[in-house]
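Show me any protein, fold above all:
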Amino acid sequence: MTALVSSAQSVLLSLPYPALQDYTQYIYNITADSSTTILTFLFRQDPTYWGFDNISLKDSFGNELMVNGGFETGDTTGWLQVRQQGLAMDGVVVPSTVGTTADDSEEENYYWVDGEVEGVDGLAQAIATVTGQTYTLSFWLAGSGGSSSGSQFASFDAWSGAPVSTFGGKVMLYNSQPTADLIAGIAPLPEPSTLAQTSLGGLAMLWQFRRRNKSPATIL
C-alpha cells in the first residue's frame, strides 16, 4: 500500500509495457489536500484489451464515495470520459460473466473494457473530500499484455489530484472539454460529526463484506 498526497496530477500507478495479468487489486491511501479530489484512469492497449472493475474510494468511517464504481448501471453514470484530443473514445462498459481475465468482469454483471490504440482514453471522477483526511482507493485491473514495439504497445496510468491537462504532449479532454469545470455541482461533504453518526448507523452492514478469493497486489 502506498500513501500519497493528492496534489496536482500525482501519479498513483504507471504500467508501461505491461505483462499479461489476471485481475489484480491495487490499494492506495490518499490524503486530500483540497475539497475536491479527481481520480483519472488512462488506458492504451494496441494489441488487445484492459479490464477495469470495482473501483472504490472510502473515508475513514468506511463510507463509499465513488459513484457507480462497479459499472452496475450498465453505463458510465457518475464518470467523466477522458481522452487525448484527436482520438475517439474506445473504452466502453459491457456486460460479462465473472472471470479472472480482461475478457470478463471481476465481479457482478458489468465492467469497463478498453482497447484504445495510438493514444489513451479512460475515465475520471471528481469527489468531494475533506482537506487533510485520508481515503482508501482500491480498484481491480486485468490486462492482456503488451510490449514496447509499435502495434503491441500498451499502458495503464492512474492519477490523483487535479485533472490531467496533457498526456504524451496532447491535450486531454474531460467529457469532450479541454478545460472542464470538474468541481461544479459537487455537493460539500457533511461535517465530520455527521459522517460519524452515519457510519455508526450503518456499522452492522460493514461486517457483511464477503471475503475475496483473489489475492490483492502488494504495492510498495
About this structure: The radius of gyration is 17 Å.
